[in-house]
Automatic annotation (TrEMBL):
Source organism (scientific name): Artemia franciscana (Brine shrimp)
GO CC entries: nucleus; SMN complex
Protein name in the entry: Gem-associated protein 5
WD repeats: 599-641
Superkingdom: Eukaryota
Keywords, sorted A to Z: WD repeat
């Protein structure tokens, strides 16, 4: 038994069946194929990663080259050989528009019609693989929602739109509109289905039924009119709620299958009367049905497939005799006589598989907890796939079957919620109060007598580092938070850290308990006289404990108890716990207990471990590395490795108690896998990189990471990942932001005043010989790393001579047939062959290789457009700089695209470098000014000097100094003044500010409040007098030293005068005001009287207690500078 992911909701084009009865449906980025078998579990085949991010449509076709067509959000349409998981061909005629509908003509199934959100129809011949655009509806219409192809020709298509409009078009040549039903429905057209016969009770000609949430319309294309309509059965909608979904499928001459709002599948019989009668086919679904399809068996029986929001896929054989003899209905009735037999009730999954547990009273029943709020009780031996879904209010994370009461299943969920349900009565209870502080990840029924009475079962649940114990007789109310005994010292001599419990496990006889915590410690407890006694602590790991499992030892356990432990580490450790801790109440763990076996093989953390109930010592482990492994827990030998084709991160597993060679596992791909270890030996395991694990002779090429951040651009990367086309450039782009800003300053000087720079990070953004030198270095790095294709690519782009490339490859002992394949020729035959090869490369997404041939043909613009269309903006920028003049508009446009890529990745400093390289100073200024930090403001001021906003340069300087002071960044403030001589008058203010607001603040923090109380605050008149005395004493010397750009002595004198003692905190802000005004007055050569007037005005306007003083200083300085 395996359960696939559920179909995409409300996707009418993503659910189809072929003539052989195989069902295909879209599920996220995958396509699931179901092949039913009589009285057996169906074959389930999954095509992984068909489209990104989601497959929207799929359709069976009769092409000789492939049998399945898929389309998705990425605008691609692919033809598959489904049995081999191989894409035969694809087209991108829709561009980047989302494909929302698909169809084919029954009379000529090789033609596949796809429609996108802009109502563009593409007709694709799956035999010769030619795609042509049929019609682009220029009239203004809402987005397309569905389409259906006529069964009577190979060109008529009906299209439905999101606002109820339906259009019938002729797809021959450029196409034409045959009929437009302006208001067929009042809302979204959910589905369109053509009548399979040209004649029915309503008349003759081509007819189709269209569905929406509120009604079904039957329209005649021949008469171009609406023939009749009928409505589905309604249910009461809560205030503010939305109307349920409805769909229809015309499968017989006068019979239409349709869903209603009561989750029923009905068959409507058309008549010439106003009201049409219907019969209920079945009520197997519990939620709204949104997809219906059918096919006819060789014996003439009708097979109906349907799916709904309850995530069930149902295959139903419709008994036409019952359809014709059952009394029709005109309104809802409680009578439910199924019109056939249910062949398959497949419980698909709509969320992560969080837990799997086998029922102890019935080994064929398995409970599954899903991340979408469902709990499934599944029968593994029922070929119809029968199971009971339960919807709970919260995400369940763990399950625990009652060991004696049949059908009772407890579950733990998010936010500390614990509940239980009766799977036999389909009832759930959510009466457990919020006892635990965190998500409940571990539960177990335990038989013990804590009060000394008769033994009975208690439910233990672990969450939020606590264990809650629930009484079996009163689960809804009675509970206690368990207090475990204090731990002993760790068995290996380390300090026992046992704060909180995240995992626990009892032995089968409920005599020994193991608990694990977040620090990787496992404590062992035993029951002595009805109380828990701590026997010691094992320091198993230093990471979070994920799973603990005791080996079921039965009656004989002389060799000890075996305990398997998994954590966030990649290994699993198996310990042998001495059996004496049970027989001897005073014994504890040995002082140096080491793991008996360490199981190594997983590449990511291990989430679950489980011992086999059939064979002693066999252990299964599940990991987020997409593998489930089976081991001999005693000697560490690896027995089986199962690699998931969907690359699921496995969270849980469970051995089947019914079959010996069967494991159930689940994870994050909404898929419950059935694994038979005997079919997956370790020698057959293939790692994700495609190399067999057993082929150790060949070895694996290590992926050498690019050297981390370099302090200077001159430090080149010695070892580079050969898959990276620009290893040095990538390493330089990964440096810290400060280095990127320094590159911007250097690049600005290089592009404006022609300053030469040998920095590699600058050469990448220059033109001419400097840039070619940098690219040649990248090519040499690729050659040394053995990546011949990257070397050839950069060499051809830069027009390096062929003989030079051949000598380089020969010296490096690199033989590459690709070099000889691209030898340039001049004959028309050579050009024709190259052009056809380019088309093949583009079809297979080999865009970089295609540019080599475009370049050899002299089609440089095509090469550039190819890179841009493939979103290879960095490659396009490099190619444009190598092959077009510096001032060419193509270079500038490509640079803007590349810069926009960095902007989308939230890297404005790199986008600024690109803008500076193409001399687009306005865009560079607009990019960098958005950042709110001193260095960005300083760079903006420098760029503004060369942009059209030169008058803004001074504004950015003032903003830079202001931000630098507010962030205590004196280095940037001094640099701003140094780069802008006109702002040297700010230097004293900067010095005074940092002395008073930084140094003095630190000093005041060290002093006690008693010292502050001894310093009497200075009066305003005293401050004014001090300012006057200071001004008269140092004015001349100050001016002289200022012109000599030496203000250190001035600053020292100011500090000495005003800060001889600890200044009371309430005077600091006023002192900054006065000092700043003093410095500004000196530089403006004002008289003493004017200065005093200004100072008095400042004091009058700003009181010492008036908030932050920094904006006040700069408001004054900005006014004076203007």
């Amino acid at each position: 038994m395996e359960l696939p992911p559920c179909p995409n909701w409300f996707a009418p084009g993503g659910f189809c069946v072929d003539k052989q009865g195989r069902l295909a449906y879209a599920s996220n980025a995958r396509v699931v194929i179901i092949t039913p078998k009589l009285q057996e579990w169906p074959d389930i085949h999954i095509l992984p990663k068909c489209h990104e991010p989601k497959v929207v449509c799929c359709l069976w076709t009769s092409s000789e080259k492939g049998d399945l067509v898929t389309a998705g959000d990425d605008g691609k349409v692919k033809l598959w050989k489904s049995a081999e998981n191989v894409v035969v061909s694809e087209h991108r005629a829709h561009g980047t528009n989302k494909v929302v509908a698909i169809g084919s003509f029954p009379r000529c199934p090789k033609y596949v019609i796809t429609g996108d959100s802009l109502a563009t129809l593409i007709v694709w011949n799956t035999e010769n693989l030619v795609a042509r655009k049929s019609i682009l509806l220029k009239i203004k219409l809402p987005p397309l929602s569905c389409l259906a192809c006529s069964p009577f020709d190979d060109y008529t298509v009906a299209i439905g739109f999101q606002q109820g409009t339906i259009i019938v078009v002729d797809t021959r040549e450029r196409g034409s509109i045959l009929w437009k039903v302006v208001k067929a429905h009042d809302d979204l057209v959910t589905n369109i289905s053509w009548c399979p016969f040209e004649e029915n009770i309503l008349g003759t000609g081509q007819m189709f039924v269209s569905s929406s949430k509120m009604k079904f319309n039957v329209c005649s294309l021949s008469d171009k009119q609406e023939m009749t309509s009928f409505r589905p059965l309604f249910k009461k909608v809560k205030p503010g709620g939305s109307v349920a979904y409805a769909t229809a499928h015309w499968f017989d001459k006068n019979l239409i299958l349709a869903s209603d709002h009561l989750s029923q599948l009905c068959v409507y019989e058309l008549s010439k009367e106003i009201r049409h009668s219907f019969r209920v086919v079945h009520k197997l679904h519990s939620r709204e049905i949104y997809n219906i399809t059918s096919h006819t068996e060789p014996d003439g029986s009708k097979i109906i497939w349907s799916t709904s929001q309850d995530r069930r896929v149902i295959q139903f054989r419709l008994d036409m005799l019952k359809v014709n003899t059952t009394e029709p209905m005109l309104q809802e009735t409680s009578v439910n006589v199924p019109l056939g037999d249910c062949l398959l009730d497949l419980q698909t999954l709509g969320g992560f598989v969080n837990a799997i547990k086998t029922c102890p009273t019935d080994a064929t029943v398995v409970g599954v907890a899903l991340g979408d709020g469902q709990i499934r009780s599944l029968s593994t031996m029922d070929s119809s796939g029968h199971g009971s879904p339960f919807w709970v209010k919260f995400k369940p994370f763990t399950l625990a079957w009652h060991p004696e009461k049949e059908g009772i299943l407890a579950f733990g969920s998010e936010n500390g919620k614990v509940g239980y349900l009766n799977t036999l009565k389909r009832s759930a209870t959510f009466g457990f109060s919020l006892n635990l502080k965190g998500n409940v990840y571990c539960m177990q029924w335990v038989k013990w007598n804590p009060d000394g009475g008769a033994e009975k079962h208690y439910l233990w649940a672990c969450g939020g580092n606590d264990i809650a114990v629930y009484d079996d007789d009163n689960l809804d109310e009675s509970y206690t938070i368990l207090e475990l005994p204090k731990p002993l010292d760790a068995s290996n001599g380390q300090t026992a850290e046992t704060r909180g419990v995240c995992e626990f496990c009892w032995t089968d006889d409920y005599k020994v308990l193991a608990t694990g915590n977040n620090q990787g410690f496992v404590s062992i407890y035993t029951i002595s006289e009805d109380t828990l006694c701590n026997r010691g602590t094992i320091v198993a790991f230093r990471q979070h404990i994920n799973s603990i499992a005791w080996l079921q030892y039965g009656e004989s356990n002389e060799e000890g108890l075996w305990l398997a432990i998994a954590s966030d580490n990649k290994v699993v450790k198996v310990f042998c716990i001495p059996s004496s801790i049970i027989s001897d109440n005073v014994s504890s763990l040995p002082p140096s207990l080491q793991p008996h076996t360490v199981l190594q093989g997983h590449s990511e953390k291990v989430c679950c471990v489980a011992w086999s109930p059939h064979e002693r010592g066999i252990l299964a482990t599940a990991s987020v590395d997409s593998t489930v492994r089976v081991w001999n827990g005693f000697d560490g030998k690896e027995l089986a490795v199962y690699s998931d084709p969907l690359f699921s991160r496995y969270f849980c597993l469970e051995w089947s108690h019914w079959e010996e060679d069967l494991i159930f596992a689940g994870g994050d791909k909404n898929y419950l896998a059935s694994i038979r270890p005997s079919q997956h030996p370790p020698s057959a395991y293939v790692k994700p990189n495609g190399k067999a694990a057993s082929d150790k002779a060949k070895g694996e090429k290590e992926n050498i990471e690019v050297k981390k951040q370099t302090e200077t651009a001159k430090e080149y990367v010695k070892q580079k990942n050969p898959t990276v086309l620009y290893p040095t450039l990538v390493s330089l782009e990964n440096r810290k932001k400060e280095f990127q800003y320094e590159d911007c300053f250097a690049l600005l000087r290089a592009t404006t005043i022609g300053e030469k720079s040998e920095e590699t990070s600058i050469m990448f953004y220059l033109f001419g010989e400097d840039f070619r030198v940098a690219i040649n270095r990248e090519a040499e790095c690729s050659l040394k790393a053995g990546c011949t294709e990257n070397y050839l690519l950069l060499s051809v782009w830069s027009d390096k001579p062929w003989d030079e490339m051949a000598r380089a490859l020969t010296a490096a002992n690199q033989i590459d047939e690709f070099l000889f394949a691209v030898q340039k020729g001049d004959t028309p035959l050579w050009k024709n062959v190259v052009e056809r090869h380019v088309a093949w490369l583009l079809q297979n997404d080999l865009f970089r290789k295609a540019t080599i041939f475009w370049h050899l043909l002299g089609e440089k613009e095509n090469a550039l457009e190819t890179l841009l269309a493939a979103d290879l903006s960095r490659d396009a920028f490099v190619y444009a700089k190598l092959n077009f003049p510096e001032n060419d508009e193509r270079v500038k446009n490509t640079g803007r695209v590349y810069a926009n890529t960095w902007m989308c990745n939230n890297r404005p400093e790199l986008a600024t470098k690109v803008y500076l390289s193409i001399n687009d100073f306005d865009s560079a200024l607009d990019m960098i000014r958005r950042k709110n930090d001193p260095l960005s403001s300083l760079l903006a001021s420098e760029i503004a000097k060369f942009s059209s906003s030169k008058n803004m340069s001074d504004v950015y300087v003032v903003q830079c100094i202001h931000d630098a002071l507010s962030r205590n960044d004196r280095k940037t403030a001094d640099r701003a003044i140094e780069l802008n001589p006109k702002f040297y008058w700010c230097k004293p203010v900067v010095d005074i500010y940092f002395f008073l607001c930084v140094e003095q603040k630190e000093m005041s923090q060290k002093e006690t409040s008693a010292v502050d109380s001894q310093c009497a605050p200075m009066l305003p008149e005293q401050l004014l007098n001090e300012c006057v005395n200071l001004f008269d004493g140092i004015k001349k010397d100050f001016m002289l030293k200022w012109h000599l750009k030496d203000c250190s002595e001035v600053t020292a004198e100011i500090q000495k005068t005003f800060c001889a003692s600890v200044i009371p905190k309430q005077q600091e802000k006023m002192l900054i005001h006065l000092s700043g005004r003093l410095a500004a007055s000196v530089l403006s050569s004002e008289s003493v009287e004017d200065m005093l007037t200004d100072i008095k005005a400042v004091y009058t306007e700003y009181a010492p207690s008036s908030g932050d003083s920094l904006p006040l200083i700069f408001s004054e300085l900005s006014m004076l500078s203007q």
